[in-house]
Write a structure and sequence with these properties.
It is a single chain. This protein has helices at 3-19, 29-32, 76-92, 119-122, 133-143, 193-209, 234-240, 247-269, 283-289, 294-300, 321-331, 359-369, 382-387, 392-399, 495-499; strands at 56-61, 97-103, 147-152, 156-159, 179-181, 185-188, 214-217, 274-277, 305-306, 336-341, 374-380, 424-426, 430-432, 439-446, 454-459, 463-465, 470-478, 491-493, 505-506. The chain is of the alpha/beta class. Helix 3 (76-92) runs parallel beside helix 5 (133-143) and helix 6 runs parallel beside helix 8. The chain is globular.
């Protein structure tokens, strides 16, 4: 060891012994705080870093027909392995949220009193899979500090190729009186108050049993019918129309009542659960075809997050991405707005020129970023990240080069958790701190006073291996609603000084 280093160590230890001894002559931890490694005992200037912008970065994992999961694999071991591989891939790309389809066709990826076990888990509807599928998925996501949103389809029960084909047998748990059949789709009847009550019960049961971070609905509202087919709901209209004289407005109100009732059920049961909806990107078709008055929902705040599927090419036409983003951003007054992107459409053999390479996705990200209202991305879908056509993952990696936390989406006053305290270094490189109840933790590297800090990692535990020398601090993040604490004290870390036993400087 060089003499200069030995001299510094000796000086630091001497100052500590003289100025910071307890009654019995031993050094206390608090007495050591604020002593510089060069031996100069002095106060360190206050430093206030700026926290980086938060952003939800999500991927849809589709299970209908086994599309993304379980891919026709009916072994529990294989299913778990596949799911974990997905989560590890998402971690690699700094993606912080999954929207996992847990109820694709009036079935369940959990033990439900209202609907059967999904056929997509075992190959047979109603057959138990031998493990708690949903709990496993939530737990594995939370181990990685990835938010888990349970994706449900509100009305869809079954599909068939044509009216001449038979629907699958209706499970005994599903009341026949709530069912309505069309040429190619069977649904819960949107006109019935009993349907709305049943959906409320299903969602309440789900969020009570499982620690989901959100409930998510996609775009299956009133069904899209075949050519010449009638909605065949005149009888229901006459019975339930109330003050409505226009059947189309009545239908829209039926869907709106369902949305409002679900929102209220969620808030009354677990207010921290985020309620999101992902309608078609074509607002006119939502309104006229599926009777989903999405603008009304956004203007009145009847959901927390809106995620339109803007699956169009970039351009200047009415139906192009640019125009659609503008439409949605204009109307999202009382809810957060994210954009759903169609990574599944990127293919060298695509018939649409813009989807033959990955360049357009970069362009669309930039267009969305120019809208202050848009606060995140959702990518459709998981398997397309795995196949990586057009090297789509290089665009994703570039976009998410830096880690980010999910923002607070609650419709109530945010309550910050307690600030982590007692930061210290163990085993040379391991930063540790005292636990804060019901939280995970964000570890930042400070880049100076009033400068944006760098999020270097998130962890469910109270320790983190520091990657390099620098100034670090920690925040606690409520694992239920993502509210974040004030920053901790800042530790000036040097691996060399830790090696020779010098206590890190507390900058704050």
């Amino acid at each position: 060891m060089k003499k200069s280093v030995l001299a510094k160590v000796f000086m630091a230890l001497s100052l500590l012994m003289l100025a910071a001894c307890s009654d019995d002559g031993s050094l206390t931890r608090d007495d050591r705080i604020g002593v510089r490694a060069d031996g100069d005992a002095q106060d360190v200037a206050q430093e206030v870093p700026v926290l980086p912008k938060k952003q939800m970065r999500a991927v849809w994992i589709a299970t209908v027909y086994g599309l993304d999961w379980p891919n026709g694999n009916y072994s529990a071991v294989t299913q778990k392995r596949l799911y974990v591989s997905y989560l590890n891939l998402l971690q690699k790309y700094n993606i912080n949220t999954v929207f996992f389809q847990v109820r694709p066709m009036a079935d369940a990826f959990y033990n439900s009193q209202f609907e059967p076990w999904s056929q997509y888990i075992t190959g047979v509807a109603g057959r138990r899979p031998g493990y708690d599928v949903l709990k496993y998925m939530i737990d594995e996501a939370h181990k990685r500090c990835i938010s888990f949103h349970a994706w449900i389809n509100p009305y869809r029960i079954a599909k068939r190729n044509s009216a001449s084909d038979a629907f699958p047998a209706l499970d005994s748990k599903i009341p026949k009186g709530l069912v309505k059949d069309y040429n190619t789709i069977r649904v819960y009847n949107p006109a019935l108050p009993e349907t709305r009550a049943r959906l409320d019960s299903i969602v309440k049961d789900l969020i009570v049993k499982y620690d989901v971070d959100g409930i998510h609905m996609d775009d299956y509202f009133y069904p899209s019918l075949t050519s010449g087919e009638s909605m065949n709901d005149d009888a229901e209209f006459q019975k339930y129309k109330g003050s409505y004289s226009d059947i189309n407005n009545w239908r829209r109100n039926n869907v709106t009542q369902m949305v409002r009732s679900l929102q209220q059920t969620i808030r009354d049961t677990r207010k921290e659960v985020v309620f999101s909806i992902s309608p078609q990107g074509n607002i006119e078709n939502d309104y006229n075809g599926q009777y989903a008055d999405v603008n009304k929902w956004m203007l009145n705040g009847w959901l927390d997050v809106m995620i339109p599927q803007i699956y169009y090419k970039t351009g200047t036409g009415y139906y192009d991405f640019n125009n659609r983003v503008n439409q949605w951003a204009t109307n999202a007054k009382r809810c957060a707005l994210l954009v759903g992107y169609p990574i599944y459409r990127y293919d060298p053999n695509s018939s649409v020129e813009g989807f033959k390479t990955n360049a357009m996705l970069t362009e669309q990200f930039a267009l969305a970023d120019a809208k202050a209202k848009i606060s995140g991305d959702v990518l459709y879908r998981m398997r397309d990240m795995v196949t990586n056509r057009c090297d789509i993952n290089s665009v994703i990696m570039n976009r998410y080069a830096k880690k980010a936390l999910v923002q607070f989406y609650g419709k109530y006053t945010e309550v910050k958790p307690a600030t982590p305290g007692n930061l210290r270094i163990l085993k040379i490189t391991e930063l540790t701190w005292d636990a804060v109840q019901e939280c995970y933790y964000a570890v930042y590297r400070s880049n100076g006073d009033k400068q944006e800090a760098t999020l270097v990692g998130v962890t469910p535990t109270t320790s983190f291996t520091l990657p390099e020398d620098g100034k670090y601090f920690v925040t606690a993040v409520n694992r239920h609603d993502n509210s974040e604490s004030e920053i901790s004290e800042i530790v000036n870390y040097s691996k060399q000084e830790q090696t020779i036993g010098i206590t890190p400087i507390r900058v704050k």
